[in-house]
Amino acid sequence: MLVEELLVVDGDAPLFRPVRPLLDVALRLDQNDDAYSWHGWNKQQIESFLGSLPSLCSLVVGVWETISEDGETAEHEKLVLGCVCEVRDGEVATIRTFESLAGAGLKAIDQLEPGVEDALEIMQDGCPGSLCPVYRKDGLG
What we know:
By secondary structure, the protein is α+β, with helices and mostly antiparallel strands. Helix content is about 25%, strand content about 35%.
Protein backbone atom coordinates (compact mmCIF):
# COMPACT_ATOMS: atom_id res chain seq x y z
CA MET A 1 0.00 0.00 0.00
CA LEU A 2 2.87 2.39 0.88
CA VAL A 3 6.40 2.12 -0.47
CA GLU A 4 9.05 1.24 2.09
CA GLU A 5 10.60 4.72 1.87
CA LEU A 6 7.65 7.07 1.47
CA LEU A 7 8.61 10.60 0.41
CA VAL A 8 6.68 13.40 2.11
CA VAL A 9 7.18 16.76 0.42
CA ASP A 10 6.39 19.88 2.44
CA GLY A 11 5.51 17.92 5.58
CA ASP A 12 5.66 21.04 7.74
CA ALA A 13 3.08 22.93 5.64
CA PRO A 14 -0.26 23.84 7.24
CA LEU A 15 -2.16 21.70 4.71
CA PHE A 16 -0.15 18.65 5.81
CA ARG A 17 -1.56 18.77 9.38
CA PRO A 18 -4.88 17.14 8.37
CA VAL A 19 -2.97 14.58 6.27
CA ARG A 20 -0.98 13.28 9.28
CA PRO A 21 -3.87 11.35 10.90
CA LEU A 22 -4.74 9.85 7.52
CA LEU A 23 -1.13 8.80 7.02
CA ASP A 24 -1.19 7.23 10.48
CA VAL A 25 -4.27 5.21 9.51
CA ALA A 26 -2.61 4.17 6.24
CA LEU A 27 0.45 2.97 8.16
CA ARG A 28 -1.77 0.98 10.54
CA LEU A 29 -3.64 -0.58 7.64
CA ASP A 30 -0.38 -1.34 5.85
CA GLN A 31 1.20 -3.01 8.88
CA ASN A 32 -1.82 -5.04 10.00
CA ASP A 33 -3.75 -7.84 8.44
CA ASP A 34 -7.27 -7.58 7.05
CA ALA A 35 -8.77 -7.69 10.55
CA TYR A 36 -8.00 -3.96 10.93
CA SER A 37 -10.33 -1.60 9.07
CA TRP A 38 -11.01 2.11 8.86
CA HIS A 39 -14.47 3.38 7.91
CA GLY A 40 -15.22 0.04 6.28
CA TRP A 41 -11.97 -0.12 4.29
CA ASN A 42 -9.40 -2.83 4.96
CA LYS A 43 -5.91 -3.42 3.59
CA GLN A 44 -7.05 -5.81 0.87
CA GLN A 45 -9.67 -3.38 -0.48
CA ILE A 46 -7.22 -0.48 -0.59
CA GLU A 47 -4.51 -2.60 -2.21
CA SER A 48 -7.06 -3.76 -4.79
CA PHE A 49 -8.04 -0.15 -5.56
CA LEU A 50 -4.40 1.01 -5.83
CA GLY A 51 -3.57 -2.03 -7.95
CA SER A 52 -6.34 -1.16 -10.41
CA LEU A 53 -4.71 2.21 -11.18
CA PRO A 54 -2.15 2.75 -13.96
CA SER A 55 1.40 1.88 -12.92
CA LEU A 56 2.25 5.59 -12.58
CA CYS A 57 -0.50 8.02 -11.65
CA SER A 58 -1.54 10.71 -9.20
CA LEU A 59 -4.44 10.86 -6.77
CA VAL A 60 -5.52 14.42 -6.01
CA VAL A 61 -7.43 15.10 -2.78
CA GLY A 62 -8.99 18.44 -1.89
CA VAL A 63 -11.40 19.15 0.95
CA TRP A 64 -13.01 22.55 1.49
CA GLU A 65 -14.94 23.78 4.52
CA THR A 66 -17.76 26.31 4.25
CA ILE A 67 -17.17 29.13 6.73
CA SER A 68 -19.66 31.85 7.69
CA GLU A 69 -18.41 35.43 7.58
CA ASP A 70 -18.77 36.89 11.09
CA GLY A 71 -22.19 35.34 11.67
CA GLU A 72 -23.65 36.87 8.53
CA THR A 73 -25.22 35.01 5.66
CA ALA A 74 -22.15 35.46 3.46
CA GLU A 75 -20.01 32.36 3.35
CA HIS A 76 -16.74 31.37 1.78
CA GLU A 77 -15.02 28.06 1.26
CA LYS A 78 -11.60 27.42 2.75
CA LEU A 79 -9.29 24.64 1.66
CA VAL A 80 -8.58 22.49 4.72
CA LEU A 81 -6.84 19.50 3.12
CA GLY A 82 -5.05 19.46 -0.20
CA CYS A 83 -2.57 16.84 -1.30
CA VAL A 84 -1.35 14.87 -4.28
CA CYS A 85 -0.30 11.25 -3.86
CA GLU A 86 2.00 9.72 -6.46
CA VAL A 87 1.14 6.06 -6.96
CA ARG A 88 3.75 3.74 -8.48
CA ASP A 89 2.90 0.12 -9.20
CA GLY A 90 0.03 0.06 -6.71
CA GLU A 91 1.87 1.76 -3.84
CA VAL A 92 1.80 5.36 -2.66
CA ALA A 93 5.34 6.64 -3.18
CA THR A 94 5.05 10.39 -2.57
CA ILE A 95 2.68 12.69 -0.73
CA ARG A 96 2.87 16.42 -1.30
CA THR A 97 0.59 19.29 -0.35
CA PHE A 98 -0.96 21.74 -2.76
CA GLU A 99 1.31 24.32 -1.11
CA SER A 100 4.36 22.57 -2.56
CA LEU A 101 2.88 23.00 -6.05
CA ALA A 102 2.91 26.82 -5.85
CA GLY A 103 6.36 26.89 -7.48
CA ALA A 104 4.92 24.97 -10.44
CA GLY A 105 2.44 27.77 -11.14
CA LEU A 106 -0.54 26.71 -9.03
CA LYS A 107 -2.74 29.51 -7.68
CA ALA A 108 -2.25 30.66 -4.10
CA ILE A 109 -3.92 28.26 -1.64
CA ASP A 110 -6.47 30.84 -0.47
CA GLN A 111 -7.55 31.38 -4.11
CA LEU A 112 -8.25 27.71 -4.90
CA GLU A 113 -11.93 26.85 -5.06
CA PRO A 114 -13.80 23.56 -5.18
CA GLY A 115 -14.89 22.69 -8.68
CA VAL A 116 -13.69 21.48 -12.01
CA GLU A 117 -11.60 24.49 -13.06
CA ASP A 118 -9.18 24.46 -10.14
CA ALA A 119 -9.14 20.66 -10.02
CA LEU A 120 -8.05 20.58 -13.66
CA GLU A 121 -5.39 23.19 -12.94
CA ILE A 122 -4.03 21.05 -10.12
CA MET A 123 -4.09 17.92 -12.28
CA GLN A 124 -2.74 19.43 -15.50
CA ASP A 125 -0.57 22.38 -14.56
CA GLY A 126 0.21 21.96 -10.90
CA CYS A 127 1.67 18.45 -10.83
CA PRO A 128 5.41 18.25 -11.36
CA GLY A 129 6.45 16.01 -14.24
CA SER A 130 7.29 13.15 -11.88
CA LEU A 131 3.65 12.95 -10.84
CA CYS A 132 2.10 12.66 -14.26
CA PRO A 133 0.30 11.19 -16.10
CA VAL A 134 -2.83 11.93 -14.15
CA TYR A 135 -5.43 9.15 -14.10
CA ARG A 136 -8.97 10.29 -14.83
CA LYS A 137 -11.87 7.86 -14.86
CA ASP A 138 -13.57 9.84 -17.64
CA GLY A 139 -10.72 9.00 -20.01
CA LEU A 140 -9.85 12.64 -20.72
CA GLY A 141 -6.53 12.62 -18.88
